[in-house]
Amino acid sequence: MSAGVDTAVRRSAIFQMQTIEGTQAAGGFRFALVVSKYHDFVTDRLQASALAALAAAGVRPDDITVVRVPGAFEIPIAARHAAQSGRHDAIMCLGCLIRGATPHFEYIASAVSHGLAHAAGATGVPMTFGVLTTNSVEEALERAVEGPSNKGREAAAAAIEMASVVAQLARTSTSRSGARIEKKRSTPPRA
């Protein structure tokens, strides 16, 4: 195959491929926030920023559930149950771990990250990681300031985008198979 034909074939393939990309339009999606109460002087700020981001994206207050858990270790089990309920299109997981003098920090950080990855994979519901893992209170507060660098806001933006991506992927698989695949929900979808 000559270089000119090879280039033409590649260009043709590019124009035929489908690209799925999320948006920040969240109206009609339902979200859960699982928020650790431990270090609430930080997590309350993460939660407030995530809620503001959801509101700015068009999410109605009755399409949001906030689940408060004792600490970061409890986030994965609550997130998994929220996902299994069928009532949420994405879950935001917000917490704060601050390194101390013992290895406890590493154990909890590892358990939370692995637990959330497993829960998201097992349920098929996107879960975003807004759990701060910092070396000091000052670092934690820097990541919870108002504005676009707030990690709660970033977790919300990622959750919105992933809810959109998963919805598009579900529509794509439905249209290709010719069969209607209904996402399990305990409540009927909104009109």
Describe this structure in words.
There is one protein chain. The chain is built from six helices and four strands; from the N terminus they run αβαβαβαβαα. With 191 residues, the chain is an alpha/beta fold. The chain has one domain (28-177): Rossmann fold (3-Layer(aba) Sandwich). Strands 2-1-3-4 form a four-stranded parallel sheet, with helices on both faces. Helix 2 (40-56) crosses helix 6 and helix 3 runs parallel beside helix 4. The chain is globular, with a radius of gyration of 20 Å. It starts with a helix and ends in a 14-residue tail after the last helix. Residues 179-189 have low confidence and may be disordered.
Helix content: 40-55%
* Main β-sheet description: 4 strands, parallel
What is the overall number of helices? 6
* Strand percent estimate: 15-25%
Structural class: alpha/beta
| Strand order, sheet with most strands | 2-1-3-4
Instruction: Count the domains.
Output: 1
Outline the fold blueprint.
Elements: H1 3-16, E1 31-36, H2 40-56, E2 64-69, H3 75-84, E3 90-98, H4 104-123, E4 127-134, H5 137-142, H6 151-177
Parallel strand pairs: 1-2, 1-3, 3-4
Helix pairs in contact: 2-6, 3-4
